[in-house]
Every structure is written in C-alpha cells, then in structure tokens.
Amino acid sequence: MRNTIKTLMLGAALASAVALPSATAASAASDPVHRPACGRYKLPTDHKCLMAVRGKQVNGWKVTVNLHAQKKQGHDWVFGAAWVGKGGHVWVERQHAARTQTLGKKTSQGNGSVSMGWDGALYDGPGYKARACADLKGGKLRACTDWF
Q1: Per-residue pLDDT reduced to its tens digit, 5-17
Q2: Would you say 81 and 43 are in contact if contact means Cβ atoms under 8 Å apart?
Q3: C-alpha to C-alpha distance for 79 and 3, rounded to whole angstroms
Q4: How far apart are the two ends of the chain, measured CA to CA in Å?
Q5: What is the pLDDT of residue 121?
Q6: Domain spans in the chain, listed from the N-terminal domain onward
C-alpha cells in the first residue's frame, strides 16, 4: 500500500504540470456514467480494479475514478484515485446492513492532479461492499464505480 500511495503521489506531481480546460456543466441525462475495465490504470498490487468515467470528450474533459482493491494480511483494503481538477473530490463509500458511509473524502488542490481517498480500515467481511466516487468542483459530473 505504501508503494502504491508513493506511485500515485508521483503521478499527482507529474500531473500537476498539466492544465486541463475548464469543465462545463452537463446534465445527468446527457453524460451517463460508463464503467469500463481499469486497463492501464490497474496497479500491479491490485487484485481488483474498477473504473467509472463520466463526461464528454469535449476539450478532453471528463471525470475518471478508480477503486483499487488490494490484499493485506488476508483482507481486502480499498482506496480511490481520480482525475477531477482543482476543487474536485474523490472518496470511498462502504456499505453494510443497508447503511452507506463516506470514507476518506479528499479535495484536489490543483488542475489535472490525482486526488486520493482511502478507507483506513479493512472493509471486507459478510455483507460489506465498497466503491469509489468522484466529482468536479461544485458536485458536477459525479461518477461512482460499481460496488465491490
């Protein structure tokens, strides 16, 4: 996990040099959430990686969020990583017994940077699920992965 966080922080440092264009408001009807495979965003230590993408490719702007699940001491640990731009958010949601908790919500401080949120406790066990969510500044273009 420590190496994964270092990898993502390095990605954030590199990405901070990239300026993304301003996001435009979009309705939920015109920009559905797509959930493709993680592909190149899967980390070597992930045993499961889920992705969600929302937004049009106009000027290259969209929200991309990943849920990374890794084994640690025989349990699943999760964290989220997202491209959200300055003021956007990324967080992990954990669900158990019909109750959903928001964990590790982080706000991105720079345009084009990777923002991270993670659950500091193991989430697995009977009836537990987790997913990663992200949005742009002001809650625009919210996207969540499938539950894992």
Answers
A1: 333 333 333 232 2
A2: no
A3: 13
A4: 18
A5: 53
A6: 2-18+30-144
